[in-house]
Design goal:
Distance between the termini: 66 Å
CATH architecture of the largest domain: 2-Layer Sandwich
Strand content: 15-25%
Shape: globular
Number of helices: 14
Helix content: 25-40%
Number of strands: 14
Largest sheet: 8 strands, mixed
Strand order of the largest sheet: 13-12-11-7-10-9-8-14
């Protein structure tokens, strides 16, 4: 007889803001039967009550530590502002719970590595991070092609996160501050596409970057750009912006036998991908087989299902450990490069480097002043 299904994973959600209500709770509801949301915490008791009522969540708390102690969840989903990511993850791991945390994973590599040190041995618990764009069928298919060499060697890539956030967006107290958000669009927005590129193309080796505070009231950057060299020999152009009225998230991979493009905004399905053969590739059957047959959109649900499977098997999930650290490491290299005016090697980001502990390099006021000096045209108003 087949084995009975495992009992549902008991989930506690920390934070009941827009990302929890709009993404995480719907994804958890879609996996009813495999998961059971047993509790919700938030510092706003009225928001906890309204959200828990809407989703039928029995446990309601305003203290995350009390929730974890009382409910003993298997999985803690972290939907807080970035400054609370590390401490929430540590509290969950210490209680024996797995963690799924919104981006950015942490405010620094030092924080990230501290969380890793509190993970369990083989079998978990582990902390993983929301990088849902890896998990759509288009990315899965391209990853397979790259592993099998179907499309040839990657040569050039483009990674553009061109979004728009108006002045009101930065009036939320924790946004645009080194101590509460960690940085600007490089870590808070573009990190999604940067993670997708690195998950496909592999490790980076050096980065040369520029940043500026050009038009928004923020202590951090509102635009960044970089040239990234990969261990494979490929070169990647990265641009992150919150100043772009026609918003797009655009990735392009130029390989020996094809160009593969992804043009979307906050999520994709197969229609957002384009597969273009090189002139010397003429076999229509081979070209037709490039795109995936199934059409699974990128989504929190897709990644969550993968994570629950890893929990059931007692395996480290994707987007955790070294695999979850890669994009944060590249973002750190970009801040170090832009603020010091140097090319940064991946090996430079050691624990004795000031950027390992903070993306501003240890002097937030000096970093803010430097970004404003780099501005072109009109600058940001004073905070």
């Amino acid at each position: 007889m087949p084995s009975p299904p495992p009992p549902p994973v008991r989930v506690a959600v920390v934070g009941s803001g827009a990302i929890a209500r709009g993404r995480h709770l719907p994804a958890l509801a879609d996996l009813a039967g495999r998961v059971s949301v047993v509790a919700l915490s938030d510092i706003d008791p009225a928001l906890v009550a309204a959200t828990a009522d809407h989703w039928g969540i029995p446990g309601r708390y305003t203290d995350t530590g009390a929730m974890i102690a009382a409910e003993a969840p298997d999985l803690v989903v972290v939907c807080t502002p970035p400054a609370a990511h590390k401490d929430t993850a540590l509290a969950a791991l210490r209680a024996g719970a797995w963690v799924w945390c919104e981006k950015p994973p942490a405010l620094s590599l030092a924080e990230y590595d501290e969380v890793v040190r509190h993970e369990g041995a083989a079998g978990g618990p582990y902390a993983s991070y929301v990088f849902q764009h890896r998990f759509g069928s288009g990315a899965r298919r391209l990853r397979r092609h790259l592993a099998e060499g179907t499309l040839g060697r990657p040569l050039v890539a483009v990674c553009h996160t061109l979004w728009y956030r108006d002045a009101a967006y930065f009036e939320v107290p924790w946004r645009g501050r080194w101590d509460t958000e960690g940085g600007g669009p490089t870590i808070g927005h573009g990190i999604h596409q940067m993670d997708l590129v690195l998950s496909l193309l592999g490790e980076w080796t050096e980065v040369t970057a520029a940043m500026a505070t050009t038009a928004r009231a923020t202590r951090t950057e509102d635009v960044s750009a970089a040239i990234v060299r990969l261990a494979s020999g490929a070169t990647v152009s990265v641009v992150n912006s919150l100043l772009s009225p026609r918003e797009t998230s655009y990735l392009r991979f130029d390989l020996e036998h094809a160009t593969v493009e992804l043009d979307h905004l906050y999520g994709y399905d197969n229609a957002h991908w384009r597969w273009t053969p090189a002139p010397h590739v003429t076999d229509p059957d081979a070209i037709a087989a490039w795109a995936p047959r199934e059409d699974e959109p990128s989504s929190h649900r897709a990644q969550l299902a993968d994570l629950i499977g890893a929990m059931e098997r007692g395996e480290r999930p994707p987007a955790s450990g070294p695999d979850g650290r890669r994009a944060l490491e590249l973002a750190t290299g970009m801040y170090r490069s832009a603020l010091t005016g140097t090319t940064v090697l991946r090996g430079d980001l050691t624990p004795d480097d000031p950027f390992y502990s903070a993306l501003h390099g240890g002097d937030p006021a000096a970093a803010t002043a430097a970004l404003r000096r780099m501005e072109a045209g009109t600058g940001a108003r004073d905070l």
